């Protein structure tokens, strides 16, 4: 996740200094939402590990899908925030910062479901070698989307 932030900032800095300043200032709002779920995701991983140790595999499936459902239910909060992202930012950066913040908030449940629920599943069942592959794929996808969303004019 930190690499994604670094990549976002490095790539956007090639676009404009104003955009770099805007996303740097908008990023704490995004992190606030990520951190709101981190304890929940960690508890999911622990629960999966406990159910895996007890050979209660049906419960693992329930925990994973409940976590995914809860993460996507967070859209109830995220959609209004994404549509009104300007209210979270200073007037000097609201134009560029709100674009970044809106897109980031709208994709946040996918990030939380992928790294959170799916990552917790693989950690909980002891298949830890899969997680770095998921992280690598996600980072490459992020970099590709950075270039498309920053430099391609729609």
| Low-pLDDT runs | none
Strand content: under 5%
Give the termini separation: 27 Å
| Main beta-sheet annotation | none
Number of strands: 0
The sequence of SSEs as H and E is: HHHHHH
Q: Descriptors for this entry?
A:
154 residues; mainly alpha; 6 helices; 84% helix; elongated
What does this molecule look like?
With 154 residues, this protein is mainly alpha-helical. It is 84% helix and 0% strand. It has helices at residues 2-15, 17-53, 57-73, 75-83, 94-124, 130-151. The longest helix has 37 residues, at 17-53. The protein is elongated and about 55 Å long. The two termini are 27 Å apart.
Offer a quick outline of the entry.
With 154 residues, this protein is mainly alpha-helical.
Strand and helix layout:
Elements lengths: L1 H14 L1 H37 L3 H17 L1 H9 L10 H31 L5 H22 L3
Helix pairs in contact: 1-2, 1-6, 2-3, 2-5, 3-5, 4-5, 5-6
């Amino acid at each position: 996740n930190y690499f994604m932030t670094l990549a976002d900032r490095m790539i956007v800095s090639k676009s404009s200094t104003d955009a770099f300043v805007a996303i740097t200032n908008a990023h704490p709002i995004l992190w606030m939402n990520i951190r709101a779920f981190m304890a929940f995701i960690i508890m999911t991983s622990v629960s999966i590990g406990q159910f895996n140790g007890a050979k209660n595999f049906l419960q693992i499936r329930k925990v994973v899908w409940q976590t995914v459902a809860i993460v996507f239910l967070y859209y109830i909060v995220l959609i209004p925030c994404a549509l009104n992202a300007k209210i979270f930012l200073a007037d000097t950066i609201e134009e560029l910062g709100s674009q970044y913040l809106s897109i980031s908030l709208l994709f946040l449940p996918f990030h939380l479901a992928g790294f959170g629920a799916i990552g917790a599943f693989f950690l909980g069942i002891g298949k830890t070698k899969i997680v770095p592959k998921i992280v690598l794929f996600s980072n490459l996808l992020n970099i590709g989307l950075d270039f498309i969303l920053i430099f391609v004019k729609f």
